[in-house]
Amino acid sequence: MKYLFFAIFFSVVMSAQKTENKKINIELKNELAQIDKDDQIFRELVQPTTSTERKQEIMKEKNLTQEDVTTGISKIMNKQDEENLAKIEKMIAKYGYPGKSLVGEPENKTAWLVIQHSSKINQYMPVIKKAADEKELPFRLYAMMLDRQLIQDKKEQIYGTQACTFKTMKDGKPVVEWMIWPIKDIKNVNRLREEAGFGQTVEDYAKDLLGHDFVFKNYTLEEALKLQNKK
Length: 231
Description:
The protein is mainly alpha-helical. Helices cover 63% and strands 7% of the residues. A two-stranded antiparallel sheet has the order 1-2. InterPro entries: DUF6624.
């Protein structure tokens, strides 16, 4: 019994040392941090909640003209997204998903973020699901990607994480409005959000995302598709 105790103790100690000795890949972590910044900065520029002062800072940092912001920002953002995705795909091919144990936090979320903004969600969904199951990535991020995939498939989302734009007329002028994409089970969405790890109701989340004055409405799928296709 004495020898068994020491064998178990030695095994536990060696396992702990092995975990401690597993080092974060600092070079990869730093690369992901820069990718994250490149991904977010243009999106911050077009967010309705971004202040005018902050928009001016971003324009100066990225050497953007007002024309770039009003008519060319989508092209600029898409080019950056393509560059980011190419880098992330090389990482995944070499390391698998660059998760918490490899790059630490918050950089474990960067690969997810880039894929979330790409057209390759379907391709990488199994990779993201595996990372979430293994706690390399928060489950709520997998939930957000699932919502995005459902929208790409023109289906209702589950967690209410995704917002979209549509064009309408206001005072005789065309304007762009925001909506939270239709939610499949609106009665239980906040319970599902809590179980997935979200800290807000869908109503509070919508205001943080789209502005304090935003009024949440759960459109039907038919209504949303009609609004997006309206000319």
